[in-house]
Specification:
Strand content: 15-25%
Shape: globular
Number of helices: 21
Radius of gyration: 26 Å
Mean pLDDT: 93
Helix content: 25-40%
Structural class: alpha/beta
Largest sheet: 6 strands, parallel
Distance between the termini: 80 Å
Length: 584
């Protein structure tokens, strides 16, 4: 007998929506973010009926909703579904879908639509939603008009299964399904008799072929002999958000010790937060390479890049100039070489490397040089910051790298915060989990992504500037749906500090009004509007005290007010001098 929930009997739309949501539940979907609207009514009713197996979260602003879903998918590694009504609602998902592609995050985007006969005739809330997101989805399709025919229900099940797989293979990303619905949208009878299905439809038999998909393991990869024969090699641990960070860091450490090569670890890599695993960890490479004499002396023969290229412009320019042979280890199918060098892509994960063992425990001269420079420059940085009492932007990243509770998820905003992490994040053994939107590198969706990462997780932290927070202030509307805690460390320098580092900063006008764009916002008042806690931080000791033990619930803003121009001048004065007189 038919074992559908009662609402699925009401009309064909609800039957269709039930098959859709039940298929996704059995595939493993556990979270859907829903934006309000009428055309999506059948989907909303069906998803609500699937609770608690699928957590349904209602978020007003579509752009915030999409970035929140992006954050959830980053944190869990599983696809998150997004639902919206017809018209321009789905267009607001676009920035997050771009980020999902560029940073390889699985999203299943379900845009509701009017049926074909109501398109191209000025029917209300109707736009062309076919291929709305261009080439950014991994796959996209428009579903057929809802039907009670058994063959069509099979089509729906199979299409959803394929969409779920394409979210995750061969590379994670977004999939877009456009879903037309005719009236009636509410679960009320529409004159179609569904009773015949009761003799045809056996629920467990219909869904029998559905199972949680598992990735196909790659074959083990034996490392090339030419790696083993070279002393002048480096490993670059680039931008990465692995689901098992300690295992990932252990694999990099084994490779490093096998080859006796240093590991240049990006600030956004978990490698810097598992420092004890890797004795050859280099965190100050950006600063070391500002010393032209040392940069020349450190020219490598070979480079292994794991994941995407780090943020550091100094590193990129150095590799472009030196043109060493380079291997990129990453299991995606994408081109990860923006430098267009002498590059071989190995389509595997670093965990799959085989025959790793300590063959020669003796450090070569090249490795020793890197390690000695790291010790000297790191000592210079640490001494400098230890004696700075005034609130400057750059010290925040250095301080929180030593202060956060072990295992804390940390979302790092783009522009200057991500660069200060790259320059100054101190290696530690705290297992801090860095998250970021470094696919398209935009500031949109910063707060919403951080809330998505923090939802149902450990108490979390976000490091951001004022413009990035203001750009996504609607993210605070999520507060009533948010489960967990997020501390926002807000560097308020009243404008875009990163532009102070560019040549255009010397030309005012138009610099201040059109580039720095100060907003003159009272963040205490803004937080009060959203019922979010706010505290003005006046000393580094006060910041440390607030971070040593994080609350369990709610959102709070810890605001540090700094001077944008003084911050920029400090970097110009100090970044090069940390490595100016080092020699080994």
């Amino acid at each position: 007998m038919l074992d559908l929930t009662p609402f699925a009997y009401k009309n064909v739309n609800q039957l269709w929506a039930y098959i859709l949501t039940e298929t996704l539940k059995r595939l493993g979907l556990n979270c859907v973010v829903i934006c309000p609207g009428s055309r999506s009514t059948p989907l909303v009713v069906a998803f609500v009926q699937q609770q608690p197996d699928i957590e349904a979260i209602s978020i007003l602003d579509e752009r915030s909703a999409a970035f929140f879903a992006l954050g959830r998918a980053k944190a869990t590694g599983l696809p998150v579904a997004l639902v919206c009504t017809s018209g321009t609602a789905g267009a607001n998902f676009y920035p997050a879908i771009i980020e999902a592609k560029e940073s390889r995050v699985p999203l299943l985007v379900l845009t509701s639509d009017r049926p074909p006969e109501l398109r191209n005739c000025h029917s209300g809330q109707t736009i062309d939603q076919i291929k709305l997101y261009g080439s950014y989805p991994n796959w996209q399709a428009e579903l057929a008009i809802p039907s009670s025919d058994m063959r069509m229900l099979g089509y729906l099940r199979q299409t959803l299964t394929h969409a779920w797989e394409r979210c995750q293979t061969p590379t994670q990303g977004a999939v877009h399904l456009n879903i037309p619905f005719s009236d009636p949208l509410a679960p009320i009878p529409n004159g179609i008799d569904l009773s015949d299905l009761q003799s045809q439809f056996q629920t467990e038999d219909f869904f029998a072929g559905i199972a949680h998909t598992q990735p196909i393991p790659h074959s083990p990869f034996l490392i090339p002999q030419q790696w083993l024969n070279s002393e002048r090699g480096i490993i670059i641990a680039g931008v990465a958000q692995p689901q098992q960070p300690e295992k990932y860091c252990q694999a990099i450490a084994r490779l490093s010790e096998t080859l006796n090569w240093p590991v240049l670890a990006e600030g956004l890599s978990p490698v810097r937060n598992y420092a004890k695993l890797n004795p050859y960890l280099i965190s100050t490479y950006d600063i070391i390479l500002r010393n032209q004499q040392q940069a020349q002396a450190l020219t490598p023969e070979m480079v292994i890049q794991i994941g995407e290229m780090p943020t550091s412009k100094e590193l990129r320019n150095w590799l472009s100039t030196m043109q060493p042979q380079r291997w990129i280890i990453d299991s995606s199918h994408e081109n990860l070489d923006p430098l267009h060098g002498k590059t071989t892509h190995l389509r595997i994960s670093v965990e799959e490397l085989e025959n790793l063992a300590i063959i020669n425990p003796e450090q070569g001269i090249y490795l020793q040089k890197w390690c000695e420079l790291e010790t000297k420059v790191r000592n210079n940085i640490d001494k400098k910051f230890a004696h700075i009492d005034e609130l400057i932007e750059s010290k925040a990243a250095w301080l929180i790298s030593q202060t956060l509770p072990p295992g804390t998820p940390l979302f790092i905003s783009n522009s200057m915060p991500v660069r200060d992490v790259e320059y100054f994040w101190q290696p530690n053994n705290l297992g801090i989990r860095p998250y970021f939107n470094r696919g398209a590198n935009g500031i949109d969706g910063t707060l919403s992504t951080a809330l998505g990462i923090a939802h149902q997780q450990h108490s979390s932290v976000m490091l951001t500037g004022d413009l990035a927070l203001l750009h996504d202030a609607n993210g605070f509307l999520i507060r009533n749906k948010f489960v967990g805690h997020l501390t926002i460390i807000l560097i308020n320098n009243n404008g875009g500090g990163i532009f102070e580092m560019l040549p255009i900063s010397q030309f005012d006008p138009p610099f201040e009004e059109f580039f720095a764009t100060p907003q003159n916002i009272d963040f205490a008042q803004m937080c009060a509007t959203y019922n979010v806690k706010h505290q003005l931080i006046n000393s580094w000791e006060q910041l440390q005290k607030n971070l040593q033990m994080l609350p369990k619930k709610g959102i709070r803003v810890l605001e540090l007010r700094t001077n944008r121009k003084i911050d920029a001048q400090w970097r110009k004065d100090n970044l090069a001098t940390f490595a100016a007189n080092i020699a080994v």
